[in-house]
Records
---
Amino acid sequence: MRSPSFVIGIAGGTGAGKTTVARTVADHVGEAITRIPVDNYYEDLSHLELTEREQVNYDHPDAFEWDLLREHLETLLEGQPIEMPQYDFEIHNRTDDRVTVESSDVIVLEGIFALYDDAILEMLDLCLYVMTDADVRILRRIERDVVERGRDLEGVMEQYLETVKPMHERFVEPTTKNADVIIPEGANQVAVELLIEKIEAERSSDSGAGATAETAVERERQDELTFSDSTN
Ligand SMILES: Nc1ncnc2c1ncn2[C@@H]1O[C@H](COP(=O)(O)OP(=O)(O)O)[C@@H](O)[C@H]1O
Ligand SMILES: Nc1ccn([C@@H]2O[C@H](COP(=O)(O)O)[C@@H](O)[C@H]2O)c(=O)n1
């Protein structure tokens, strides 16, 4: 199995458009991309009742199982598959399922804390931060949480004011300093096209480097053959 040639981190506040950027890019690049949502690495909270899990601060870095995420990224970087946990926002917990995720040419790590952990930052080749105004993000989040994540409006508003907003300001937004590129307003067409171009360029330069190395090895072998031929 071939090791990835390019690892991208996409961070940003809730509702900024991280998943949309990652999915759009993945749709264009196809099977060569492995997408890793950081949300799947929320701690297993099976030991808590649902009512207790509803009270957890999911916007604090301590809510995530960092060791497992680091280990899985390292495994993918070695070209090996992982058994990725799956997360269910309706029950505020992991499901019992694990999905086998193969490594591929490009790894995209996406989530509010994609640019937070030092060890993970070391593994990233390109760090993106999706920057979208807070008012746009909360409007998107209300719609998404009610429609897709089984929440009610009152709960979404309360959670936003109590944890999402203060944790965003304290932990998420400061990670802009780790970004190489800031993408405004989520999946904007120009930014996504540039990202796709960059990925294609990295992939072809990587396979080009491979081809050059092969050629050099082949040339050396030819020289050895020529040398042995002349001595025989
Ligand atoms: N550029 C955009 N313009 C309009 N809506 C967008 C844009 N990017 C994302 N959205 C919408 O906003 C919502 C949140 O986007 P999502 O990608 O899930 O955000 P995140 O992963 O950052 O939480 C989704 O309903 C998505 O369709
Ligand atoms: N049980 C949970 C777990 C997480 N959240 C919220 O999800 C947000 C991160 O996901 P995005 O796709 O929006 O980046 C984060 O802000 C958590 O508040 C939740 O509501 N419930």
---
Amino acid sequence: MSAAHLPPAPGDYDTSHSTTVRKYNRTYGLVPPAVESLDVQASRCLKQLERRPQSIDKYLYLSSLRSTNVHLFYRLVSQHIKDMAPLIYTPTVGDGCLQWSHNYVQPEGLYISYSDRGHIASVLHNWPQVNVEITVVTDGSRILGLGDLGINGMGIPVGKLSLYVACAGIRPEATLPLMLDLGTGNKSLREDPLYMGSRREKVSAQEEKEFLDELMVALTEKWPGIVIQFEDFKNPFPALETYGGKYTCFNDDIQGTGAVVLAGIISAVKRTGVPVKDQRAVFFGAGSAGVGVAKQIVEYFMREGLTEDEARRCFWLVDTKGLVTNDRGDKLAEHKIYFSRDDNAGKQYKTLEEVVDHVRPTILMGLSTIGGAFTPDMLTKMGQWNEHPIIFPLSNPSANSECTFEDALKHTNYKALFASGSPFASIEHDGKLETPGQGNNMYVFPGIGLGTILSKATTITQSMIYASATSLSTSLHPSEVSQGWLYPELARIRDVSVIVAMGVIKAAQEAGVDREQSIKSMGNEELEKWVRSKMYDPTTETQRVEEEVQGLTDPSKWGGNRGSHL
Ligand SMILES: NC(=O)C1=CN([C@@H]2O[C@H](COP(=O)(O)OP(=O)(O)OC[C@H]3O[C@@H](n4cnc5c(N)ncnc54)[C@H](O)[C@@H]3O)[C@@H](O)[C@H]2O)C=CC1
Ligand SMILES: CC(=O)C(=O)O
Ligand SMILES: [Mg+2]
């Protein structure tokens, strides 16, 4: 609801509002007269979606709904999350980004260009919302597995923040999608007449660092306590290193992905019955996500009794040049050195096939961006070597998945423990429905953000990230565990986010980085109730606004200023 002196906000045009609220908001007469139930509103939206066969058209319809009728959008998304997540997030958001400048109709976030350096604070001042609690920021330089999309990557902060609202109850107006227009290495975009970003080459790493230094100060001065999520940067390690212990920030691709995959791995490893010391993990892709995931699992293996060196040696990372080894002859990027092998006896393994044959892995992890990289032959061998091979093709969007759910099952004689980054449909086999896991950071980042905001944590510690993973792994209902699922039902995501947020809050308290005094001595039950009470719920928003308007007794606000023209 907008303040009395402001023009109506998008949520004010909600057709579920009573005449009284419409008069107060000055939207009376601006929307059709019927006061609609939430069910009627939802059925119209679902019909609109049905009429559009292409996912991208559904995406565009939903984007426009978010901009014009925000609470209805979130009611629809949170009540139909299984159907809506693939439309507002991966895989469809991939197309949304690829076509961003071509489809552009309305502002949905904030763009700050390299030419704004020195004045970033004044650009932030243009953001129309007063209280921002969380931002997702990208420079568009590695959007999903689609490469450098420049400012077209804005779909990712918008999509991720929509999930923060729908899945963890952050208020929509407290979110800031932020695109850093730092140029693009994508020549075809620079030459596209409809491209809406700066037509310059990507700035240098040093220029980017200086720009980020200014941005971090400006963001935290304007909104003290703001949670900053770094997303889809091509090389995000330096920023995490520089700002991690200093600001309330985290990197979703390194840490969020690490946590979500760890949660699935904890369950999967238990299912295999193979002790962690005998697990052998081949990672196809040694970038931010690959290394982030491997490091989280190292910590788990250590907690299960291995030394750090023993744990580290359970991993074989493969990049474009093959197995990452000490004597490969190229200068290894800093983040790969920790996992670089020294036991290859001078032999270099150039392809994933060679590495798989050499290692005979128990775990095959895909964070490479290369669709179909897990061949039928590799999958068949995984099935022959393991009673329950763990196969996680995690690259997004769907076309980049290293294999399909169907292939993983078919070639392993239906023994694979499977999770993918983008969703796959369930498959019927032998009269039984086989359901794939979705190992996507969407299971943890909403809860990490919520827990951080509510605990008023000054930084996001590794222990908070680890707690998000263990909390997620314990969130499965017994019926989900008995069906062999690695992740909980997506329809329960709001409840799951509460569990994750509580784990994050407790870890923040243990680390001593929390500042919310009122919850320090709360037990589990009380804390859960408190967390839920703080969450935005689009299904009760109409009622909340109704009560707020009815409760207004100040005649100058009601009869005089806002409603008198009626
Ligand atoms: N499921 C999830 O929640 C998440 C999935 N991802 C996905 O993981 C993928 C990688 O993301 P990042 O690690 O951030 O990217 P990145 O660019 O940092 O790393 C990509 C890695 O793949 C390797 N690679 C690329 N092409 C290859 C080839 N032809 N052969 C062998 N290796 C190759 C690169 O050498 C690099 O090590 C993306 O598709 C992204 O969508 C990322 C974050 C979360
Ligand atoms: C899911 C995600 O963060 C990615 O694919 O980059
Ligand atoms: Mg990402």
